[in-house]
Prior knowledge:
The chain has helices at about 1-25, 30-35, 40-45, 50-60, 80-85, 90-100, 155-250; strands at about 105-110, 115-120, 125-130. With about 250 residues, the chain is mostly helical. Among the domains are: about 20-100, no CATH class; about 105-135, no CATH class. Strands 1-2-3 form a three-stranded antiparallel beta sheet, with no helix packed on it. This is Stathmin-3.
Amino acid sequence: MAAPREQAQGAQSQRLEGREARRDVASPTQKDRMNRVPESHIQGSHRGRGWEAWAGRGWGWEVPRGGDSTCSAGLPPPTAYKEKMKELSVLSLICSCFYPQPHPNTVYQYGDMEVKQLDKRASGQSFEVILKSPSDLSPESPVLSSPPKRKDTSLEELQKRLEAAEERRKTQEAQVLKQLAERREHEREVLHKALEENNNFSRLAEEKLNYKMELSKEIREAHLAALRERLREKELHAAEVRRNKEQREEMSG
C-alpha cells in the first residue's frame, strides 16, 4: 500500500518541477514584455501607491517610489506599448477611473473679485475666492462718500417740534375722546332701544290681559243674568201654583 502512494507523490513532484522549468524557460520577448511599462502610462493616470504596488506584484516590473518613472528595462517602443495595452485587464481601467488626471484650473473675474475653480472630487466641488487689494482698484471706481453732517438744531426749531408734537398729542386725545363718546352714545342707544322694546312688550301683555279679564267679566255677568232670570221665572211659577191651589181650596170649602 505504501509503494503506490510513494509512486503517486513522486509523479506529482515531477509534474511540478516540469511546470517550473517550463516557466523559467520563457521567450525573451515575453520576459521583456512583462518587465516593461510605458512611461506615459505611469506618468498619467496611475500615479498612486496602490497602482504601483499592484503593478509591481501583478506584472513583474518595478516602479520607483521616489517619483522617477524610468523602468529597469528602459522605455518600450510603440509596438510594445500597444501590446501591453492589449494585455491590460479590466482592473487597470477601473484604477485609471479612480485616479483621473487633474483638470486645468478655471479662473473667473467678477469686478474686484477673482474666483478660481479647484479640482472636482466625488464629494463636490470647491472654489477659491480672491479679493483684490485696495491699491489694485481703479480710480474710476466709485468712492464711498461720507454721510452728510447733521445741522445744528436751534431753539426755535426745537420749540416748533415740541408744539407740533403737542398738537399731535391733542389731536390723538381728541380722536380717542370722540371714539369713547361715540361708543357711549351707541351704548345708550342700545339700552334705550332695549328698554323701549321691553316697555312695548309689557304694554302689549297688559292690554292682552285686560282684554281677557273684561271678556271673562262680561261672560260671568251674562251667566249671572241668565241665572237670575231663571230664578225669577221659577218664583213666578211657584206663586201661580200657590194661588191656583188656594182658589181650589176655597171652591171646595
